[in-house]
Design brief:
Blueprint lengths: L1 E6 L29 E5 L4 E4 L5 H7 L7 E3 L5 H4 L6 H7 L3 E5 L1 H10 L15 E5 L4 E3 L2 E10 L2 E8 L2 E3 L8 H7 L4 E5 L13 H11 L3 E5 L7 H7 L4 E3 L5 E3 L1
Parallel strand pairs: 3-4, 4-5, 5-6, 10-11, 11-12, 12-13
Antiparallel strand pairs: 1-2, 1-14, 2-3, 7-8, 8-9, 9-10
Length: 252
Amino acid sequence: MRVTFLGTGTSMGVPVAGGFGEELLDDDPRNIRMRCSVWVESEHTSLIIDTGPEFRLQTIRSSVKKLDLILITHEHMDHIAGLDDIRAYNYAQNDAIPLYASSRVLQSIKTRFDYMFGPDKYPGSATLDLHPLNGPFTFRDLTITPLPYLHGEITVHGFRIDDFSYLTDVKKIPESTKALIRGSKVVVLSGLRWGPKHPTHLTIPEAVEIAQELDVPCTYLTHMNSYVNHKETNNRLPDNIRLAYDQMVIEV
């Protein structure tokens, strides 16, 4: 299984609109971060987790030519704003794209993108086949297990896809979800910044502590802000915990 990090930045991207925070960055391109998303490819499946505001640009620069499945972690706009661009895949594949998310998130999508659904669906708009998350399921050659956890006060769903577990916008992971993650070969966790602590996101030290508790062979951190320098941070991290970066490709 091949995983491409399409974006690894916080909700505002790095740098943010107007170039604010740009002065904090050096010339390392790994410090430029679009909003969080990953592309997972197996022998028979091409899927995306989250479609943020740069979804179109991410798919172009990483050559995502086929899309079989969409998984959505939660309804914040940095994770769903790019859903309109799914229509290009509808046209190319001549089919609806299945999308899995919690019932709450599906309702939010139908409300925010109302022109895509119902009897008044706008001609040519994206066509999505919505499915509520009801536990683990199989899609073609992949076993997908939803991983519920807390992002502040709301429940978000990460996903374990075979031996790869992906969790972004994390604040607290219940023990029942940790049990579902254990045994993975690779886990991705969000790590917003070194400090101070944040009410809805893990800091990097908090993410490292959870990674060490999970005892997964390899952990990558995502959802970093402008204050996180790629090279300097990796020099401070344990050898089996690294920062992910945009367009990074790993094999699981």
